[in-house]
Specification:
Length: about 475
């Protein structure tokens, strides 16, 4: 079986994931030693600085993305397709800060627009500015489901306010999500996060009661989704169904088109709001994100990451005018008002950076180029995996790329009657090691990925994809 999959082929990726879990390949002992030695000798300053940071920062590393094996890399410069560390090493950036920098690192027109704004309004005024409307208009242009848009500071805030608005608007309490999906780190949305039926496993510090109005369904299980709606009727009804449109954080577990369509119908049937979490997919799966890709009009869309062009305070919520009326400070609306705040939200720099990024994506025709390059590159990587007989599931959804050598992220949030899946948790430690060693090997060869199974490419990455391909080949040659 080839390693290449269409990024929306749920069944193919699912079957391959099981095969990967049972018959994986690992780095050879020799290669592992060579790569560990790279970090010890070529990244000594990074190691020392992360070690020293532990006295001041919990664990020495603040962000999960930076928590790489065998230790975090101290990044001192980012430009175009590259990242540079404190030891003078250069890496191709397939991490892209987890997705926001769609045009590349330190993209000049965005940086210049932000500096220009800083030189005029300064960093913050607290007053209204025209740039807020410019950004809102751009979002409305590309997201027909958005009648009104409000800027926030993060994707997590977007999730918090989305479910609060849904409850206020519908007068119902129950929220349905998809097993395993991530919607930020707000208390209730930690329910059933990461792996199947985990319920409160990742909600440490969150009282159980807080999760009482949450439930989840298995991905792509339309019957179960309707069942949850029916059960919730007895509890006063469902306020919202919230979904990551391309599945577990974001894309390891593809959600099929029919599920999207049925979800829309069921939300209408049961008077619930459909919330798309487009924190990752907005301006990634094309200008119109997942909404355009699946041809669905959600009631609310959560934004984050790319919405501020890679600048801080990146969050937003948009949707139907009547629902968005819940947030209005002044304009009349039919329903209840809900509390929303954020000292730094809609600040001049984030808004102008987001606006400029969207204009630049339009001007450069970025998405057509990204799609063509991502599709081609993913196939090339899959061909390489086949050449080296490395078992892998390799697929992409536009410029989100997946190089899965262990299937675990997919399988832990899915259920079927297969005993492989029932037993997969016992195989987790080995799979996790495989993932982090893959990322380590790529980094030692000069390329940084997110976690070890997912990557993003930017417009600036396209010219260096041949260089990236050589790096993947050097790593694949080291598996046995
Ligand atoms: C699908 C999804 N939703 C929400 C969030 C939370 O966004 P933020 O990190 O800006 O709080 C993330 C972050 O990675 C995400 O991937």
């Amino acid at each position: 079986m080839s390693s290449y999959f269409d990024g929306f082929d749920f069944k193919g990726i699912h079957e391959k994931s099981k095969e990967l879990l049972l018959n994986p390949k690992n780095l050879t002992d020799e290669a592992r030693a060579k790569y560990l030695n790279y970090f010890e000798t070529k990244c000594a300053k990074s190691k020392a600085s992360v070690e020293a940071a532990k006295d001041h920062i919990p664990g020495g590393i603040q962000h999960n993305l930076a928590n790489s094996y065998p230790f975090g890399i101290n990044c001192v410069k980012a430009e175009g397709p590259y990242l540079y560390d404190i030891d003078g090493n250069r890496y191709i950036d397939f991490l892209q800060a987890g997705g926001p920098t769609i045009l590349g690192n330190n993209y000049r027109p965005i940086t210049d627009a932000a500096i220009n704004m800083l030189n005029t309004t300064g960093n913050l005024t607290g007053l209204y500015g025209e740039f807020e409307v410019d950004l809102a208009k751009k979002i409305k242009q590309h997201y027909p489901a958005v009648d009104l848009f409000r800027m926030l500071a993060s994707g997590t805030e977007a999730g918090m306010i989305a479910i609060r608005m849904a409850r206020a608007f519908t007068g119902k309490s129950e929220i349905i999500k998809i097993n395993g999906c991530y919607h930020g780190w707000a208390d209730q949305l930690l329910y059933d996060m990461r792996s199947v039926d985990s319920r409160n496993m990742f909600a440490i510090g969150v009282p159980d009661d807080c999760l009482n109005h949450m439930c989840s369904v298995y991905p792509n299980d339309i019957e179960e989704l309707e069942q949850r709606f029916i059960e919730n009727e007895e509890k006063g009804g469902t306020a919202a169904f919230i979904m990551e449109p391309i599945g577990q954080d974001s894309g390891a577990l593809p959600i099929v088109k029919e599920f999207h369509q049925k979800a829309r119908e069921l939300c209408d049937k049961y008077g619930a709001l459909l919330i798309y979490d487009e924190v990752v997919t907005a301006f990634r799966l094309g200008m119109g994100g997942a909404s355009a890709y699946f041809g669905i009009k959600p009631d609310l869309i959560m934004f984050g990451k790319a919405i501020a062009g890679g600048f801080p305070a990146a969050g937003g919520i948009g949707g139907r005018a009547d629902v968005m009326g819940c947030l209005s400070a002044g304009i009349a609306s039919s329903g209840a008002k809900v509390m929303v705040g954020g000292t730094l939200s809609a600040n001049p720099v984030s808004c102008i950076a987001g606006y400029t990024a969207i204009c630049e994506m339009e001007k450069t025709n970025a998405h057509a180029k990204l799609k063509e390059a991502s599709d081609r590159f993913t196939r090339q990587i899959a061909d390489l995996a086949d050449k080296y007989k490395l078992p892998a599931a390799i697929f992409n959804q536009h410029s989100i790329l997946h190089f899965d050598l262990c299937g675990i992220q997919h399988l832990t949030s899915h259920r079927d009657d297969d005993e492989i899946i029932e037993n997969c948790f016992g195989l987790l430690p080995g799979a996790n090691t495989r993932m982090k060693e893959f990322a380590m090997a790529l980094a030692a060869e000069g390329l940084i990925v997110a976690g070890g199974n997912k990557a993003f490419i930017s417009l600036a990455t396209i010219p260096v994809l041949d260089e990236a391909l050589e790096i993947f080949e050097r790593v694949f040659a080291n598996y046995a």
